[in-house]
């Protein structure tokens, strides 16, 4: 298992969040910032400046293109459009489970929000894959815990095991209660 999986540290790639915000339609930076706050504010925080820097980098990477929209009596504004590569990049990211407990608190919740907000197909596949990853972590930590001589670290293992089990239980409830066609209530 990689160090990131063992320690739980991960990074939260704002680039994917920005790409996902453009999946519905092209938009300008201010509206993207508003969508981020409205749809993801409880999950993911990012300042407007950071978002604009990210959008600029995505354009340089070929993941989106910019169109200048002329406005009467106002400065021109940039409208961001996903490229095919940007769309593919986002869809690849959103369908991959996360590799750490820490990433589940932000990145996994954002992915599930995108499945709901964009009405993406088969969220159950992501949930099942995520549960499998956390179940493997649980088994590894249980094995490591039994061999740990430091009593404090045994409790740390217990803490992580319980976190991973809670997330798996939460995912099962989420799937059962909120996903029509995925074992949950019908639409």
Name the helicity range.
55-70%
Largest sheet descriptor: 3 strands, antiparallel
CATH topology assignment of the largest domain = Arc Repressor Mutant, subunit A
Query: Radius of gyration over alpha carbons?
Result: 19 Å
Mean pLDDT: 90
**Quick one: CATH superfamily of the largest domain?**
Winged helix-like DNA-binding domain superfamily/Winged helix DNA-binding domain
CATH architecture of the largest domain: Orthogonal Bundle
Commentary on this structure:
It contains eight helices and three strands. It is mostly helical and about 190 residues long. The chain folds into two domains: about 1-95, Arc Repressor Mutant, subunit A (Orthogonal Bundle); about 120-180. A three-stranded antiparallel sheet has the order 1-3-2. Helix 2 (about 15-20) packs across helix 4 (about 50-60) and helix 7 packs antiparallel against helix 8. The longest helix has 28 residues, at about 150-180. Mean pLDDT is about 90; it is low at about 1-10.
List keywords for this structure.
disordered N terminus, mainly alpha, three-stranded antiparallel sheet, Arc Repressor Mutant, subunit A, 187 residues
Sequence-ordered SSE layout with sheet pairings:
Blueprint: H1 3-7, H2 14-21, E1 27-28, H3 29-40, H4 48-60, E2 64-69, E3 77-82, H5 84-94, H6 101-117, H7 123-147, H8 151-178
Antiparallel strand pairs: 1-3, 2-3
Helix pairs in contact: 2-4, 2-5, 7-8
Brief overview, please?
The protein has 187 residues and is mainly alpha-helical. It has helices at 3-7, 14-21, 29-40, 48-60, 84-94, 101-117, 123-147, 151-178; strands at 27-28, 64-69, 77-82. 64% of the residues lie in helices and 7% in strands.
């Amino acid at each position: 298992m990689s160090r990131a999986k063992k320690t739980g540290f991960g990074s939260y790639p704002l680039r994917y969040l920005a790409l996902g915000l453009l999946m519905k339609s092209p938009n300008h930076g201010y509206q993207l910032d508003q969508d981020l706050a409205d749809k993801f504010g409880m999950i993911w925080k990012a300042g407007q400046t950071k978002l604009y820097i990210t959008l600029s980098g995505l354009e340089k990477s070929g993941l989106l293109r910019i169109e200048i929209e002329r406005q009467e009596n106002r400065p021109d504004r940039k409208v961001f459009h996903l490229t095919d590569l940007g769309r593919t990049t986002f869809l690849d990211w959103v369908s991959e489970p996360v590799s750490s407990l820490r990433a589940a608190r932000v990145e996994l919740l954002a992915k599930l929000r995108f499945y709901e907000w964009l009405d993406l197909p088969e969220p159950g596949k992501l949930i099942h894959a995520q549960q499998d990853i956390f179940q493997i972590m649980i088994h590894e930590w249980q094995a490591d815990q039994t061999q740990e001589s430091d009593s404090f670290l045994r409790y740390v293992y217990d803490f992580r095991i319980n976190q991973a089990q809670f997330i798996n239980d939460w995912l099962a409830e989420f799937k059962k209660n909120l996903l029509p066609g995925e074992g949950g209530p019908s639409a």
